[in-house]
Amino acid sequence: MISSDVDCIGLKDPVPLLYCNRYHGLSSNDTSYNYGDSLSEFLRDNGVENYSYYVNASSPLIIRKCPFDPYVHHGDDNGKIMKNCRDNGYYHESRDGACYLCRLEGKGGCEHYGFETFINPHSTNETGRVSACGSDHVIFSDDTYPGVEVIYNSEDGMNEILYLDPHGHKVKYGMSDF
Ligand SMILES: [Zn+2]
Ligand SMILES: [Zn+2]
Fold first, then answer.
1. Closest ligand (CA of 97)
2. Which of 3, 10, 36, 97 has the most CB atoms at less than 10 Å from its CB?
3. For residues 55 and 39, what is the distance between their CA atoms, to the nearest angstrom?
């Protein structure tokens, strides 16, 4: 599928482990990484403002292809498509994201056609925040850039959010109105 040289579907994504295991708090279950303080500490070391918004964030462990293609429909149905995508921990084709072989070498991005997933911040009742854009090839890179808070689901006063750059990932995934 995504990577022409290796079928990586169903394999574990090693990138979060390679970047965060020297920090405290990283754990995983059958389906996802839970960062504890590790990702926010990593982001602080990289000079990211508002790094603390990624305390207790999570992201997928197993590489699974997102079925919601074209991706611009992720905002459909009031964000329910994006919620389904994030609840299942799907990955998306991406020119900027790293391919599987480069992920094995600990690279967050590479020159090959690859894929991306999102880092899910812990749900919050705060709104209007800005932190590092939550695409994994942005988070695990030397040049993060900002993302604005995108609320794709709200329950009991708590918002499930992503931080996405307004003119890149928000557009790609059809979240411009969120
Ligand atoms: Zn998706
Ligand atoms: Zn590559």
1. 2
2. 97
3. 7
Q: How far is the CA of 3 from the centre of ligand 2 (A)?
A: 9
How distant, in Å, are the alpha carbons of 89, 97, 99, 138 from that of 164?
Answer: 17, 15, 21, 10
CA of 102 to the centre of ligand 2 (A): 4
**pTM of the full structure:** 0.94
Q: Which amino acid is at 177?
A: D
Distance (Å) from CA 167 to ligand 1 centroid = 18
Residue position matching structure tokens 């695409």: 135
Q: What are the structural domain ranges in the chain?
A: 15-172
The per-residue pLDDT for range 3-52, each reduced to its tens digit, is 444 578 889 999 999 999 999 999 999 999 999 999 999 999 999 999 99
Could you tell me the distance, in angstroms and rounded to a whole number, from the CA of residue 21 to the centre of ligand 1?
Answer: 26
80-120, pLDDT tens digit by residue? 999 999 999 999 999 999 999 999 999 999 999 999 999 99
